[in-house]
Give the backbone structure.
Amino acid sequence: MAGESASHIILFITTVLLASSVSAVTFVTIQKMTIDLEFRGKAISEYLATDFEIINDPSMIPQIDGKYIFYIKNTGNTIIPFTNETITVLINGSVVRFTTNVYSLKPGDVGEVIVYDDLNSGDHRITLILHNGLSKSLDFKVE
Amino acid sequence: MGFSTVAGFVIVVIASITIAGYLLHTLIDQIKDVSKLSKIENEMKLDIKNSDFEIVKIEAINTSPTTYDLTIILKNTGATTFDCEKFSILVDGVLVNYTANVSRLYPLGYSEFKSVNLEGTVGSTHRALVVADNGIREVRSFTVT
């Protein structure tokens, strides 16, 4: 009789431990999933709220001492981080060296991207890629 | 044996309900956020579709042998209101400072933008590009008189 009670207690404790372990593992997995989901949700939200335009006159790109100036206007609803680390500039498909005149662009603001590149006269294409992958291009002409 | 099964089952059920609630709460929050921003994005697209303006007059009067003042009059030909401070004006490809006579340009309304001390002689021809806050633009050439 006492042996039967002991085995019942052992079985009960084992069941409780097993159920708790399964619940804990499931909870941790789901928690990781929700954190990931939250992160993705935030990234999507940010992407949807971000927009910009390269507003240069395509046939008159300002040039000072071999540097070309491109004007970027924030036409979205979020602040755009605007540094060498957060944006990428391609001209005719190749990454080029550049600097910016501000660190961030508030909605409606215009920033400058100063590109150091020798461009032959003719048609070219600049592509600007933001930190979140949003990109815009402008076809322009150099006289 | 029977009590152990019931206890295990109760623990698993309570944990499952807690997890489901947690997951559902996060999911609903995320869906709400994304749908709100999707709505904003659609509104922005609609805004661009309904926005338009026209350069109705452009005048460049010389003020010294090498400089001139530029006056641009815009008409809002769309159905949305523009914030005049958020326009960008480029003359010969270069961003210039300006002042506007009104802060908001309402549908069918007019606004005067002035930019002073620009470089150019009498008879020289230039190009002005006007860009609104949502990216829509108009370009016009003009001669300094």
Chain A touches chain B through 46 residues (CB under 8 Å). The longest strand of chain A covers residues 67-74.
